[in-house]
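Sequence in, structure out.
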Amino acid sequence: MKKEFRVLPKIGINKVGLSMTSADLKDIVGETGKRHVNEKEFFQYQDDYIFHFVDDVLVSISVNNPHIIFLNEQKIDLIHESKQFLFKENPYYVDGSYIFPQYNMSIYGLDFPSDGIQLTIYSENQKNSYEKDIKSNSQFRSIDKQLVEIKYEITPYQTVGLLKFGMQPSEVEKIWGAPLKISKNSKKGITTENRMNSQAKYNEKGQLVQLALNCKEDVFIDNKLLSKVGSKLDSLKNEEYFINRNYKVYFKFGIALDNLGNLSSNDFIYIFSEEMIPHWKDVYRPLI
């Protein structure tokens, strides 16, 4: 069974809150094991939880082997989506732990989840203890981990992995990094950003309206790998499509495939917003 925890940064996990006393905790979880460090400091244990008290005030909460967490209402699968999560949040890496100072959170073991994961949130007065070494260490995207392959799951007309239609260029840059080249079509009001293996297009309001991903990237529909099989994907076999020049367009999914869906590693998958539907339907208008 998947272990799910609701994490409220700087506040608590599930029903247990930082700053509780040991008596408050007992009222919520019942009896716990206990280990003293000294007169002022002790730990209490129950199932997957570890509670750290100083002067009878709860200063950190740890959970062992969480699978699913809800962080600020966002559902995150730490087993299968950890790389996307780390790429988005860009934490510091210190001695096997990822430190998220914006959340007062530490996660140990994400690189090898089968060996065990421990997630900890801590109070403001514990920040120095957990974060004292972060400035002398690297963040996730500043080291070679920035080359990690990100899973691009398509939610038609809404999201592509961590990217969401309507995002501004600054929001995309936080996920993808700076573009290699930017070009603008003042007549059409379109801005295009090119990166390694990808392209992003924005309308005149600066809103993301289209993405293009090289088939070297892992692009999914219904958790099935589209970028390797193209129009042979089971989800597409019986779907209606539209031919526009050399593209096979599936309006149900908001995608257009190079080479009439017979994809190779040099081809691209185009994922577009509702705003771009007229461009992909009009065979007489040059596609942008």
